[in-house]
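for the recovery benchmark. tokens below, seq after
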């Protein structure tokens, strides 16, 4: 899918694209989402622009994520596609050719959708294609900041559940929640570190004017604060994970202790029953009228004695 935009008095205006002839010279930004070969052909015909493949923009080497060739300056950065249980970092490519920006990605992303909405309402300062890219990076940082806040709020709930002496039946859900929170937090950090690296390379490239460079430095500072926040969340997740595992061990030890006490308490009655179950002729109690009752009382007393002893020692 192709979306094209012109810039009119600082506002983005979308151009309907149904053929190569719709790609007019005034287009300043072309946004491609998993474009077909036909759509790639339209870009070649209208702007002599060759977009990289989706496989190319997924490369992790620095030379593959920031380089310049005959098709323009290429920048690739991760954007987090957030979901409750399956969040994924998606690579998005930015290609500058002259004063026109081309973006390419595999699927729609929240940061792009939010930026387009703001740009149409004039909530973003836009002057050229580079300001569009900076606006997208700013929106990305805001989106990741919202995700970090959501992780922190979820961790507070998990913390209350763990430190509130949750029952062992709840511990499995706690571990699942912590694993999901750690996974999302890790992907946020990967996305921010990748963005910070791209921003430093972009700053050193010299393609931005003084005002845009200062704007870029603000984005870098925001990204640094977010990276610090993810480090704090990692420490908190680790603490809660250790605490949860500690509670699980304590609960398991309680169960093992109960079985141990039960086995010790039943050992003396078992021994008495074994003695009177032996088949010897000379056992006086076998012919005693009160022998059966005596054996039962003796077994009960031998079971209660260890129990009260454990209670006195506060082992139960």
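predicted aa per position
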């Amino acid at each position: 899918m192709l979306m094209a935009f012109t810039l009119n008095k600082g506002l983005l205006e979308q151009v309907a694209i149904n053929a190569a002839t719709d790609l007019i010279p005034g287009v300043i930004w072309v946004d491609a989402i998993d474009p077909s070969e036909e759509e790639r052909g339209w870009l070649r015909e209208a702007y002599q622009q060759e977009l990289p493949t989706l496989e190319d923009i997924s490369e992790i080497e620095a030379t593959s994520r920031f380089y310049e060739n005959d098709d323009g300056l290429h920048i690739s950065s991760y954007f987090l596609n957030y979901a409750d249980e399956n969040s994924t970092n998606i690579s998005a490519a930015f290609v500058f050719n002259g004063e026109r920006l081309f973006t390419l990605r595999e699927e729609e992303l929240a940061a792009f959708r939010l930026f387009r909405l703001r740009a149409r309402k004039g909530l973003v300062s836009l002057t050229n294609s580079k300001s569009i890219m900076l606006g997208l990076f700013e929106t990305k940082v805001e989106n990741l900041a919202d995700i970090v806040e959501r992780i922190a709020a979820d961790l507070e709930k998990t913390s209350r559940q763990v430190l509130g002496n949750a029952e062992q039946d709840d511990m499995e859900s706690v571990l699942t929640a912590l694993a999901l929170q750690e996974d999302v937090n890790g992907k946020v950090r990967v996305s921010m570190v990748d963005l910070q690296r791209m921003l430093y390379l972009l700053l050193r490239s010299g393609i931005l004017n003084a005002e845009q460079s200062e704007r870029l430095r603000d984005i870098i500072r925001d990204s640094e604060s977010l990276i610090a926040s993810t480090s704090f969340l990692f420490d908190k997740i680790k603490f809660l994970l250790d605490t949860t595992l500690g509670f699980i061990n304590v609960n398991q030890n309680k169960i093992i202790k109960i079985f141990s006490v039960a086995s010790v308490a039943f050992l003396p009655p078992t021994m008495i029953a074994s003695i009177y179950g032996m088949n010897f002729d000379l056992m006086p109690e076998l012919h005693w009228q009160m022998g059966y009752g005596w054996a039962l009382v003796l077994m009960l007393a031998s079971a209660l004695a260890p129990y009260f002893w454990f209670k006195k020692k506060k082992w139960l």
